[in-house]
Amino acid sequence: MFQKDFPIFQNQPDLIFFDSTASSQKPRMVIEAMCQYLGSTYSNIHRGLYDLAIESEEIYFKSKKKVATFLGGVDFKELIYTYNSTYALNLLAQTLAYNHVLKAGDRVLVSIVEHHANVVPWLILKDEIGIEVDFV
121 with 89: CB under 8 angstroms? Predict the structure, then answer.
């Protein structure tokens, strides 16, 4: 059973968690890797020329290359890490509007069971640039 990999279930055995878009629960191996990184290598990336910053940036690029391989050979330079899905959706919506991919009258279909985070950005663009938002 997958629950054994997630420490949250030791403290919350009856937990049913449906808010993964905003804050997914972490398996033990991720928590341990984060603790290791934060305790030994954590530093700003893209800004420092000292050893710790260089090592941290190497880890960052290595992670992007792993994700690119996992996604089937995508160029790692095309991957963008964001804080969470909410931020990513807002960034996507605003980018589509800013680059005129979405224009007044264009229609965006949104499922009626979508998380709030995947509804609001489109409703904002409805007001800002006049797209249509239809719930299906």
Answer: yes
d(CA 76, CA 64): 6
Judge whether 88 and 82 are in contact, CB under 8 Å. yes
For 38-97, the pLDDT digits (tens) are: 999 999 999 999 999 999 999 999 999 999 999 998 999 999 999 888 899 999 999 999
Count the residues in the chain.
Answer: 136
Contact in structure between 8 and 72 (CB atoms under 8 Å): no
What predicted TM-score, i.e. pTM, was given to this entire model? 0.72
For the record, the structure tokens of 72 come out as 């089937």
pLDDT digits (tens, 9 = 90+) for 92-122: 999 999 999 999 999 999 999 988 889 999 9
Q: Where are the domains of the chain?
A: 2-78, 85-135
Contact between 15 and 24 under an 8 Å Cβ cutoff? The reply is: no
Count of beta carbons in the 10 Å neighbourhood of residue 60:
13
Half-sphere exposure of 4 (CA within 13 A, CB side): 1
Cα dist. 16→3, 8, 13, 86, 124 in Å? Answer: 11, 11, 9, 21, 31
